[in-house]
Amino acid sequence: MSPNTTQRWLRRFHPCPDAPVQLLCLPHAGGSASFYFPFSQALAGSAEALCVQYPGRQERHDEPGVTELHTLADRITEAVAEGADDRPLALFGHSMGAMLAFEVAGRLEDAGTTVAWLFVSGRRAPSRRRPPRNAHGFTDEQLVAELAALDGTDAELLGDPDLLRMVLPAIRSDFEAVETYRYRPRPPLRCPVVALVGDRDPRVDLVEAAAWADHTARSFDLRVFPGGHFYLSDQQAAVVDSVRRHLTASTLLGAG
């Protein structure tokens, strides 16, 4: 993977070469790297955020989306292997990004890279399944209604037919990747895991979020915030504070 290819996958909105840790941030289905811009800004100094840009959106709009989550995880892992440095690396993913963060963390560990922390937000544990919704097969109108129900997409975008024509293909491919994903059983991760969830999230309940504990051989923490599936938009300060406190814990600094 060439440096130019790596740059397409990873965004450094606030370069912090002196920050003690890098944090790989993976967006939700239909999301882009810029979703994490305020997150990156708030963490600057404590961590350097590497925000993943999936194909099919923003400046990558002319690239086809990836409809298979394991393939997407492979490509992200390659970009991280090329683009990260020798600082400790943690991962944060929301919704689809949580599943990708889990898969990327496993691939990195299997390749001998130490993962400092895994933060999984707004997603049930991979070993917990629900009947598939098959939203990727919805009509455009049904898909827009699905996005509106989750309350994570700008209402102005949902009401603009021209913008929708540009973004719906990427959203549809992301939904297909999530809905066709099948967990491949593997040994527990060797990094600590923190699950974050909104207390009114219709896509994951607290039992499903707590089941992430089964996927780590290290410590596990469950953090519950007020809100729905996109609780982190309203609870950004509290989420950033929680992430920062974990990143600066003694285990990350070499005491554990």
Under the CATH scheme, which class?
Alpha Beta
Would you identify the regions where 5 or more consecutive residues have pLDDT less than 50?
A: 250-256
CATH homologous superfamily assignment? Alpha/Beta hydrolase fold, catalytic domain
Rg over alpha carbons: 17 Å
Give the fraction of residues assigned to helices: 25-40%
SS content category: alpha/beta
Q: How do the SSEs run, as a string of H and E? A: HEEHEHEHEHHHEHEHH
**Mean pLDDT over the full residue set:** 88
Largest sheet: 7 strands, mixed
Supply the CATH architecture.
3-Layer(aba) Sandwich
β-strand number: 7
Number of helices: 10
Whole-number total of structural domains: 1
Question: How are the strands of the biggest sheet laid out side by side?
Answer: 1-3-2-4-5-6-7
CATH topology heading = Rossmann fold
Strand content: 5-15%
Q: What is the terminal-to-terminal distance?
A: 34 Å
Shape: globular
GO molecular function, one term: hydrolase activity
Protein name: NRPS (Te)
Keywords: Hydrolase
Pfam families: Thioesterase (PF00975)
List the helices and strands and how they pair.
Blueprint: H1 3-9, E1 10-11, E2 22-26, H2 37-43, E3 48-52, H3 69-83, E4 89-94, H4 96-110, E5 115-121, H5 140-150, H6 155-158, H7 161-179, E6 193-198, H8 206-210, E7 220-225, H9 231-234, H10 236-247
Parallel strand pairs: 2-3, 2-4, 4-5, 5-6, 6-7
Antiparallel strand pairs: 1-3
Helix pairs in contact: 1-3, 3-4
